[in-house]
């Protein structure tokens, strides 16, 4: 219910008559509106867009109850600032890298890898186990480099005003 003279919303409630017929004796400055939502809430990527719900008092008659105007609920999806989208892309890269090389395995493998490097630099022959560690680290590095390239590509798209597919193009499996 609204006050026509001021546009003030007085009440959000169901129409007071089940048969939806006009209300006799209603103050001429008051008006019941029927809430309508002409379009469904859109599908959108919340990391790129913001969903705004727009509620408006209209003088558009309801199609079925044409003696009642509509209180319309619509939606728009403005684009987030580039910095926010970039943060989402960085988070996606971090998630992908953590799937390639889980945090819980990093300390051990990096420590063993550094020890392997020292042995190799010192001219020592690597054991089979050390060679496996070296190969694993190199294979992981290739995947993380690919993720870095994907990050840079997506950031360039954002800078160009495009909307990257944040979930696509990441290496997500380890070795």
Radius of gyration: 30 Å
The outline comes out as rod-shaped
Query: How many individual β-strands?
Result: 6
* Major sheet description: 3 strands, antiparallel
Indicate how many domains the architecture comprises.
2
Strand order of the largest sheet: 2-1-3
Identify low-pLDDT runs: none
The helix-strand sequence is EEEEEEHHH
Secondary-structure-derived class: alpha+beta
Helix content: 40-55%
> Could you tell me the mean pLDDT?
95
Distance between the termini: 63 Å
**Beta-sheet strand percentage?**
15-25%
Number of helices: 3
Give your account of this protein's structure.
- The chain is of the alpha+beta class and 175 residues long.
- The chain folds into two domains: 2-76, no CATH class; 82-159.
- It contains three helices and six strands.
- It has helices at residues 82-100, 103-121, 128-159; strands spanning 2-3, 8-9, 30-31, 33-36, 52-61, 69-76.
- The strands form two sheets. Strands 2-1-3 form a three-stranded antiparallel beta sheet, with no helix packed on it. It has a three-stranded mixed beta sheet with strand order 4-6-5, with no helix packed on it.
- Strand 1 (2-3) and strand 2 form a beta hairpin.
- The longest helix has 32 residues, at 128-159.
- The chain is rod-shaped.
- The model has no long low-confidence stretch (mean pLDDT 95).
